[in-house]
Amino acid sequence: MRCIAFVPRGRPDFIASARLSFDEFLRMDYEEGLAEWIDGEAFLYMSAKYPHQRIVSFLTTFLNAALGASGKATVLGGPYAMSSGAGKPGREPDIMVVSAAHHGRLKAAFLDGNPDLVIEVVSDDSVERDYVTKFREYATNGIAEYWIVDSREGHEGARFFALDSGAYVERQTEADGMYRSTAFPTLRLRPAWFFEDPPPLAAALELARSAAANE
Question: 78-89, pLDDT tens digit by residue?
Answer without folding.
Answer: 778 888 777 677
